[in-house]
Amino acid sequence: VKVKIPFGNKYLDAIFSVPEKKPTYGVILTHGAGGDMNFPHLVSLAAYLASHGVLCLRFTCKGLNIAYRTKAFKTVVEYLKLSDDYKLLGVFLAGRSMGSRAAASVIRQLSQEGDDDFIQGLVCLSYPLHRPKLQSKLRDEDLFFIRCPVLFVSGSADEMCEKQLLEGVASRMKAPKKIHWIDKANHGMAVKGRTTDDVMEEINAQVFSWLRENIELEHK
């Protein structure tokens, strides 16, 4: 289902992937610095989640300014929260690369405003912890303010997220967290000798099983 979400004096293009049964939880998903919501990894994940009963709303927000991307993401969260078509108990925020930074930033802002009861968790695909070869400057400040569960899915050969550095950041986070490493994958999740579909199957299954664990924990 295609929708246009009002954002300032513009609109954000978005697409709902809707499960057959009435969903109780959803995932909001956005892209990295390049590309848009039709980036193949996002399309694949959205379809997988919907086929397993989780609503997925993915959206496009062009722009390389993290504050602008965060503002757009927040607008989409509000839109889904107030939606009459889908009455959800909660949502997980998810993004690829820069999109995951924006998602983390939204969760930090909402928790500081005391308005994060709708947010169930954060999924970071290829979180860009640092620029290539610039490991001294980490983009980790938002992660330390997050309290909801966090899943990182990163390539062990990601040039923007060195393995030991992410593990070090995760160990200092207060949130419940899990890191799933895609062996030998780079920032774009490409692995020599593996097809994109094969890699996506691994990622999609990991994301869904983590969501299911956290939804079940929520219900207990």
UniProtKB/TrEMBL annotation:
The lineage of its organism: Eukaryota, Metazoa, Chordata, Craniata, Vertebrata. Residues 27-209 form the KANL3/Tex30 alpha/beta hydrolase-like domain. It comes from Ardeotis kori. The gene is Tex30. Pfam families: Abhydrolase_11 (PF20408). Gene3D superfamilies: alpha/beta hydrolase. InterPro entries: AB_hydrolase_fold, KANL3/Tex30_Abhydrolase, NSL3/Tex30. PANTHER family: TESTIS DEVELOPMENT PROTEIN PRTD (PTHR13136), TESTIS-EXPRESSED PROTEIN 30 (PTHR13136:SF11). It comes from the Eukaryota. This is TEX30 protein.
